[in-house]
Design goal:
The protein is an alpha+beta fold. The protein is about 35% helix and about 25% strand. It contains twelve helices and 13 strands. It has a seven-stranded mixed β-sheet, sandwiched between helices. α6 (about 170-180) packs across α11 (about 255-265).
């Protein structure tokens, strides 16, 4: 198989098809485009999600942590703890492991999430660190029911705004800058590269998702592997609806545009942790609320009852497709 997130078709026929056993405790299990699982408890439901990355240890840790907690936030859950598993090459220095743990501890402390356990080992055959973060959070049952109920979007005359919180491609931009710094110095200044590298610190979007959950929200889905285009497709699949997206309304930073041009990548397919898609009745109101919190937000399109999912750029129109292995991430990982 190709490197990167496996395709939706492979996920359905080879992974999900083979894990059909169910028990009464699991209210929501594995699904294509799903953000995590939900488990029944006496008073309220508990949600969990997992995220894994390989590469430079601190960057991989930041990405895995953000991916795990953002996915819970997209489900309307409030994360409270994570468990961290890290596999390292034998050449890893203890000082680097300590720096990694301090970084994750500070990320968790900032949003009230405890590192509650995990597993750490050096292993033969591991060339680069592999970091896996599993997150846990509680979700109120009434609010959870709204998130995965696409009926509203299928009713006659029901169309809703789609708001994007955050900028597209922040994660991919930071990875390109960190992993290709020496090459980039041939064209860009050190200050420019440092600015792009610092985007890795903007990937957690839990507070903004919590604000969106109280603003007439119909559904949320975080952007990550597969980029904003992949996330839009998955959102449409979850809600069983169509959509029309204005390409020029999608927030994007100049550094993302220029680095993607340099490496001949599509910025709307590169890894995009740090973004959240929200379906809501009052898109402009939500976007204004998020901007007041200091985060980028914009109405980028509308849902509809059809099946087509289109991207409009002036007079041009293209159709979204299911994310594909390799293409969904525009092979950004092949460079690291």
């Amino acid at each position: 198989m190709k490197r990167g997130k496996i395709s939706e078709s492979v996920l359905k026929r080879t992974v999900i098809k083979e894990i059909q056993y169910k028990n009464k405790t699991v209210k929501k299990g594995a699904a294509a485009g799903g953000d995590g699982a939900v488990f029944a408890t006496d008073d309220r439901d508990m949600a969990s999600s997992v995220s894994a990355y390989t590469g430079e240890i601190i960057m991989s840790g930041r990405r895995a942590f953000a991916g795990a907690v953002n996915s819970l936030a997209a489900m309307g859950a409030e994360p409270f703890a994570v468990q961290v598993c890290v596999l390292m090459p034998e050449s890893t220095k203890e000082s680097m492991l300590r720096a990694f743990m301090i970084e994750l501890h500070n990320m968790g402390k900032d949003i009230g999430v405890q590192i509650a356990g995990g597993h750490t080992e050096t292993a033969a055959g591991i060339e680069r660190p592999v970091v896996t973060v599993t997150s846990y959070g509680f979700v109120e049952r009434l609010s959870y029911g709204k998130l995965y109920n696409g009926k509203d979007c299928q009713e006659p005359d029901n169309e809703y705004d789609i708001v994007m919180i955050g900028d597209t491609g922040l994660e991919g931009t930071a990875v390109l800058a960190v992993e290709n710094e020496e090459e980039l110095h041939k064209r860009f200044t050190g200050a420019y590269i440092d600015k792009a590298k610092a985007y890795i610190k903007e990937l957690v979007i839990v507070r903004e998702a919590a604000a969106a959950a109280t603003h007439g929200m119909k559904a949320m889905h975080d952007t990550s592997k597969g980029g904003v285009f992949g996330a839009l497709w998955e959102l449409g699949e979850n809600l069983k609806c169509g959509m029309e997206i204005n390409l020029r309304s999608i927030p994007i930073r100049q550094e993302t545009v220029e680095l993607c041009e340099y490496f001949d990548l599509n910025p709307y397919f590169i890894n995009s942790l740090g973004g959240m898609l929200v379906v809501t009745e009052d898109g402009e109101g939500l976007a204004g609320k998020i901007r007041n919190m200091g985060k980028t937000a914009a109405v980028i399109g509308r849902t509809d009852r059809g099946h087509q999912r289109t991207i409009v750029n002036n007079d041009e129109k293209r159709y979204l497709e299911p994310p594909k292995s390799g293409k969904a991430e525009e092979l950004i990982e092949k460079r690291i």
